[in-house]
Each structure stands twice: as C-alpha cells, then as structure tokens.
Amino acid sequence: MYKDEPQILTVVCKLETTNEQDRHLENLSLIFAATCNYINSSVPDKYTGATKIQKLIYADAKTRSGLQANHVIQACIRVAGNRKNSKVKEFKPGSVLYDARTFTLSKNLEVVSLCVLSGRIKVKLILGDYQRKMLDWGNGSPSSATLSKHSDGWYLHIQVKVNASLDIAQITEKHNYLGVDLGRKDIASVSNGMSFSGEKIEKTRTKYSKIRARLQYKASTGTRSSRRRSRQLQKRLAGKERRFQAWLNHNIACKLILEASFSESHIVLEDLTGIRERTNTQPRSREQRFLANSWSFYQLKLFIQYKANIAGIPVVLVNPRYTSQTCHKCLHIHPIAGSSYRNGKDYCCGHCGWKGDADYNAANVIKQLGAKVNSPCGSEFLACNLSVASIPGLLKAHCEPGVPGSQWVVYKGQC
Alpha-carbon distance 320 to 365, whole Å? Predict the structure, then answer.
C-alpha cells in the first residue's frame, strides 16, 4: 500500500492572550457551541451530510448567531461529524473550528490572526523548537485549525500538510522487509527479534477498570459527600488510560520506523479489519472480552502508517490467516484440523522441528507474505485455491466470500 500524497499533521501551539482577547475568544466559543446546538436541534436527524445540513439551516443560523460565514459552515461540519460518529446530544463551549480563511499565520510564525465576533484579533503564539520546525515543514500554510480552551489557557491545534518522502520509483529497489505481529501479550513482535511487551498496558487497563467500577458504585450508592468526591475522581481519571495507550503506541511506532529506516526495509503489517466482530461471536469470559475490545491495534497501525509515509517507508498489509499456525522455516501447519504447533508463547514445528517464540515465528511468516505480495511476478503468481482438506499442512487460505484478500498465500511449489 503506497500513497504518494501529502500527510496532514497537527501542531499544538499555546496562545499568549490578553484579558480582552480572552473575552473575545470566550464569547466566540459560547456562540459557536450555541449555534451547533441550534443546528443539531433544528435539522432532522436523518440528515448527516455537512452540505445538506448547511443548505437547510445556513441562512437562519447565520442571522441568529451573528457568526462569520465560515464559522457557520464549520458549525454545520461539526454537527455532521458528530451525527456520523459520537452522537453528542449537547455541544459544550471550549472549542471552535477554523479553516484557512478564518485564521492566518504571520510570516515569522510569531502571530496568528483569528476571526472573532467583532472582526479579527492578532494573538501571539508561544512556539518551541518542535512547533516551529513542523510549521516550517508545512511551509507556513496550514489547512485548518481548532481553537481549544485548556485549564491553563487557550491553544490552537493547527493542521499542516507536509509532503511525504515516499519515492514510488525507488520502492521496487528495496528488498528488505520487517514483519510485525500484533498481539496483547506482546504489543508488537518484529521479524528481526525486537519485541514490545504488553504487560504494562494490560496491568494499567485492569487497574483503571477496577478503579472505575469502585468509583461508579460509590457515586451511585454512597453518602452525599462520597458521591461528590467519587465524581471528582472520575473526572480526574477521564482519559488517563487513553493518553497512556497513545503515548505507548507512539513510542512503539517511532522505534519501528527507526529500525525500518536504518535497514531500508518495507514494514509488513497484518490487516486486522473486522477482527473484533469475528472474535466477539466466540464464547469468552467477561475479562477476556474486555481485554480484547480494549486492544488498540488499529491506533498503532495508523501511527505506523503516517510516520512511515513521512519517512518514505513503504507499508504492506497482508491477510493474517494462518500466520500464527505456520512455521516460517518450512511453511507447514498442523495436518489435523483444529490443532496447532503453537502452544501459548511457544512454537514447536512437527514437520521440520524448529522451536522458538511463537510471536517471532508469526512475524517472520508475515514478513514472507509481504515479500510475496510485493513480488514483481504479480498477484496472479500468488493466487492458490488449494483447500486444507486436499493438501494438508501447507500455508494457504480459502477463497471465501466476504473475506477480502483471503486468496493470497505463500506457497512452495506449483499450484
């Protein structure tokens, strides 16, 4: 999967505001949230497209709110996005959407001009070396921004477009591959022997789950003072686990990108689309279901993809079927249906005798799949519809309806 297109990054910059500017931004935030609520309540729920919502309510919303035209359009976009995703019933003040026409960065990146109710105000930006570098990288031409109020003041989340370093002409010259097996016990196992343990995040999830359960119980059954204290603690804990998970995934993605860059390799990942829908149909304990559904493999994949795109590293997605059961040395699986050479973290091949870490084995199978999928021989060379029943023990996947990419295999020999 190679995409030669700009990458959008978000740069968070703090604003140095005066008391008067604070009042302007506060008023804008209140009116913007009220406009979103008015649009949401006035337009029937069946309309979820920003263009349709804007057509129905734009003139009325602009007259009632007094907002700039582009802010009314951004309010329609926010309502449309909410209806497609989170279904928030009420919009609270604290953030405002901007596009490239409602805010402008100065050439030296020291000042930003923002549209407010009474016109425009110029606010000083507090920039560090990282923010300045990212804004310079985006040629000082941001595409959009979000004004957000934090506990310590106002921040501007600026979206900039940067050109990826990916050179499509040089992709076929790279013949090295890094296979990455994603899991819960080890968040990521790499075909070169690197691994990232998931023990810490699993303990963190379990810890916060128990704390939330206790606080919820006290908030609903305790005394008046304990209920108030429990709600305060719940507010403090909100997002703490999510932020820790994102920080961990960012670090793992950075290390994988550095390794791939150093070895000039493609990165090969499993395409785990729909895995929760498939696994949730299986009987499991409540704890196992919780751990599986809180597994943030999709976020890690996104982090790897966008960082790889910037660094010019190709990313290949392969079908995950049989990757954990197959021996990376001889490409055989257990000949008996329902049985496997894998036992937890251990893998012992009954065909060639190879023994080792099961996740390391799976990562190397994924690596070989990526190399074959990216083979210049073409996809037809890889298609093999042999069934497990007819020739047991070889790595292959059936062509099943509704299973994208299930026909791709690594196959030793002729079909």
Answer: 10
| C-alpha distances out from residue 84 to 72, 74, 95, 236, 269, Å | 19, 15, 19, 28, 28
End-to-end CA distance of the chain: 26
160 three-state secondary structure: strand
Pairing outcome for strands 265-270 and 7-16: unpaired
pLDDT at position 237 is 77
Please give the Cα distance from 158 to 143 (Å, whole number): 8
pTM of the model: 0.71
Q: What is the tens place of the pLDDT at every residue in 150-198?
A: 888 999 999 888 766 555 445 445 578 899 998 888 888 899 988 888 8
- CB contact at 8 A, 29 and 180: no
Q: Cβ neighbours of residue 318 under 8 Å, at least 6 residues apart?
A: 268, 269, 270, 271, 366, 369, 370, 373, 405, 408
Question: CB count, 10 Å around CB of 23?
Answer: 12
- Chain-centroid distance, C-alpha 57: 33
Give the pairing of strands 176-182 and 153-162.
Answer: unpaired
Of 104, 42, 44, nearest in space to 72 by CA: 42
Element (H, E) at 151: none
CA gap 410, 231 in Å, rounded: 54
The mean pLDDT of 125-148, rounded to a whole number, is: 82
Q: What is the pLDDT of residue 139?
A: 63
Residue type, 88: V
Positive or negative: CA dihedral 54, 60, 65, 70: positive
Give yes or no for a contact between 94 and 29, defined as CB atoms under 8 angstroms apart.
Answer: yes
Residue 200 in tokens: 């810490």
